[in-house]
Amino acid sequence: MSETNVYVAYKGNSYLFGGNAPYVEEMYEKYLENPGSVPDNWRGYFDALQHVPAVDGTDARDVPHQPVINAFAERAKQGGTKVVMAAGADSDLGRKRVAVQQLIAAYRNVGCRWADLDPLKRTERENIPELDPSFYGFTDADFETVFNTSNTYFGKEVMSLRDLINALRETYCSSVGAEYMFISDQAQKRWWQEKLESIRSKPSFNAEKKKHILDRLTAAEGLERFLHTKYVGQKRFSLEGGESFIAAMDELIQQAGAQGVQEIVIGMAHRGRLNVLVNTLGKMPKDLFAEFDHTAPEDLPAGDVKYHQGFSSDVTTPGGPVHLSLAFNPSHLEIVNPVVEGSVRARMDRRGDPLGKQVLPVLVHGDAAFAGQGVNQETLALAATRGYTTGGTVHLIINNQIGFTTSDPRDLRSTLYCTDIVKGVESPVLHVNGDDPEAVVLATQLALEYRMTFRKDVVVDIICFRKLGHNEQDTPSLTQPLMYKKIAQHPGTRKLYADKLAAQGLGEALGDDMVKAYRAAMDAGKHTVDPVLTNFKSKYSVDWSPFLGKKWTDQADTAIPLAEWKRLAEKITTIPATVTPHQLLKKVYDDRAAMGRGEINVDWGMGEHMAFASLVASGYPVRLSGEDCGRGTFTHRHAVIHDQNREKWNEGTYVPLQNVGEGQAPFVVIDSILSEEAVLGFEYGYAGSDPNTLVVWEAQFGDFANGAQVVIDQFIASGEVKWGRANGLTLMLPHGYEGQGPEHSSARVERFMQLAADTNMQICQPTTASQIFHLLRRQMVRNLRKPLVIFTPKSLLRNKDATSPLSEFTKGGFQTVIPEQNEAVIKKADKVKRVICCSGKVYYDLVKKREEKGADDVAIIRVEQLYPFPHKVFGAELKRFPNATDIVWCQDEPQNQGAWFFVQHQVHENMLEGQKLGYAGRAASASPAVGYAHLHQDQQKALIEAAFAKLKGFILTK
């Protein structure tokens, strides 16, 4: 078929014109402006017009645009509103040409569903009609017909239908199944088409590359078999069946280094983790064996199992040294993912690398966990947002097709692929057969190149199998007999690849020699990664030594000089003339200016702002994130001023704390997406990689921490005693019983108190503006890094009784216990019969009731730091009232919640002989609070009365 005949086929396609002419005209105009803006089938049609001779013999590509459009219009006039179907061969050829474009699009869209991806070959190829030429009316007679294929990247302008189908199947239906057509950006789709179609998804590695791949497969299999025979029955969560993953990791690191990456942070759960530690990061095998032999040093209060351990090393790459960090990981599968992303973002910020050119996050998943764990969706949702982007993550899935041993494939997930969740953020996916290690390496190369080019997440789904059970004590054939019959017959990926290389003439004994060499290295306990650098240190590495091994101290020099106070106050309360604030906000800033001058007491918002301002002025960056933290859920903060006269939604904001002075440290405030688990994990990871930044996560309401409880339990509370990882993350959790119902009253104080041990964190409930100022500053100026949990108030944000005079900021510090403040009570200390101890907002209710009753024989003590409990200061305060017989703990929360169960023993320890301890608060409840306003008020009134009434119920006597 000549090119002219191809053109005639189009020319005769009159059903494309007629009443459809306006549509065709519009489509052609779009094509002329941008060929990538029209659907593939139309682009192919118009491409064909540009590659064939015109009727007059001239080159069609030289025809002016308007005559072509006029020709469409003329056809429309001739055809009227009726679609005229031309008869004969020309019309049939035109229909087939369009069908060819549809066939190409079908393979690009769903060709992966015919790809050869399963090493176990358990299922037959599904029926997908649109991948069959007969679906479009093609017969055997058409297979030698030549069609224009200029919209493909197979290297030919025209191809026979037979050659085209072969090329499409080689590209999209071999060992690599690509999914990318759901991406809306045409440039990215064209990128994938060119990369895949130009090589038909087949790598062309030289002999040395192939030998190296075999070496990595040998290492992966060799470690597992060594451990299997040496440590029979011990849990290790074997990688056998997924050995190609180690080849992928090796390629990823080497290619990333070649492209300028200098740090890679890896997050993964337990499957294959020991293999990564030894064969990727270069952990000495003898050190791993020591852990199996239970002879490893145990210098942590708790420690953790070997397949949760992190590690770091430096390896050589073609681009220079690359620092590798494997994050410590609990058993909660995917929860490490946002922690890794936060760690990467901290490293990017430290390097001044906003695009992530130098730092790369790599996340390794299991198939069932990737589809099933909600934290993955939350973490993906962060990927393109300003405060959380890391320049794209490379995701590797060890897809052993079973999830967990007892899962029935029908119950494994509700989507076709485990990767389908990434389609929401338009991340491309390469499914690849784990038994084709060269294809796995190619897919990894392409994934990294895509990430470095477009700064987006990308997924490599390595479809393999799991030779052993979920752990080495499991018998999977009990519930998966068919799968494990297939696995028992499988010779192993390494053996298959070694045989393939032998068939290519690369040496019959090559595979056996590698096996022997690796076994010898294992027996000697030597490195299996060559070379690992032992004395390299990057200028961007962080020195944690000033913060490690320090004994707990409550003391810190947090006051600032009066002159500095006034300078900072003026800076953060001055709004440029070019910015028009809301009238309500103008009043807030006018009041803050007066507070800065000492004309009125300082409120909570100003105390907080001055803490941040003084820190950034001293060189401590501040990062504040949460769902409403720019304004503050209770509109107390207003860290971001929105110009009321701005013309564009993405312009016209002013952040005073970013304008404190020349050379100040960064202040970053981020209104996060509606996520708790991923965002808190991200901030934990950030704080864990930067001890010199105050990192704060604020919950919109304190109970929102419920959605992040895994991060609190498995990282914040226990990370130091399990893994020796210090962290200075600060949590602000609004807390207070003010009639807002069960979910918006309690930040679940009791949960944090239950987790408090081993001096693992600080739990505080400040009640004045000066206290939050000193507490936030103390978190940074001390040479100590512990997580800080602050139960912040709601009503106290505007309560004048909670304001502080300027003098409390220029002297003193954070008070772990605020003693009795009433002078009349202090003067009659020996007359005091009752001491009420409390924490938080209830203090102000108690003071008001004491005034009403005229009870100057009652002292009230505020405990502002619940943990570590300030025994020395608290005990000294109790001794000021030696004749008190009753000690009462009063709280807003129900008796089975709040601090009561934790604090009763702390108070009892400091009581004098003969004193009795009682409780005043709400009765035990299954709900944090009531939902009826009148019932709340009745309860509040009753608990305040009970604090002054005769002790009853539970009484603990010293």
Automatic annotation (TrEMBL):
Belongs to the alpha-ketoglutarate dehydrogenase family. This is 2-oxoglutarate dehydrogenase E1 component. SUPFAM superfamilies: Thiamin diphosphate-binding fold (THDP-binding). One of its GO terms (biological process) is tricarboxylic acid cycle. It is an enzyme of class 1 (oxidoreductase). SMART domains: Transket_pyr. Keywords: Oxidoreductase, Thiamine pyrophosphate. InterPro entries: 2-oxogl_dehyd_N (IPR032106), 2oxoglutarate_DH_E1 (IPR011603), DH_E1 (IPR001017), KGD_C_sf (IPR042179), ODO-1/KGD_C (IPR031717), THDP-binding (IPR029061), Transketolase-like_Pyr-bd (IPR005475). GO terms for molecular function: oxoglutarate dehydrogenase (succinyl-transferring) activity; thiamine pyrophosphate binding. PANTHER family: 2-OXOADIPATE DEHYDROGENASE COMPLEX COMPONENT E1, 2-OXOGLUTARATE DEHYDROGENASE. The lineage of its organism: Bacteria, Pseudomonadati, Pseudomonadota, Betaproteobacteria, Burkholderiales. Residues 602-799 form the Transketolase-like pyrimidine-binding domain. One of its GO terms (cellular component) is cytosol. Its cofactor is thiamine diphosphate. Its EC number is 1.2.4.2. Pfam families: 2-oxogl_dehyd_N, E1_dh, OxoGdeHyase_C, Transket_pyr. E1 component of the 2-oxoglutarate dehydrogenase (OGDH) complex which catalyzes the decarboxylation of 2-oxoglutarate, the first step in the conversion of 2-oxoglutarate to succinyl-CoA and CO(2).
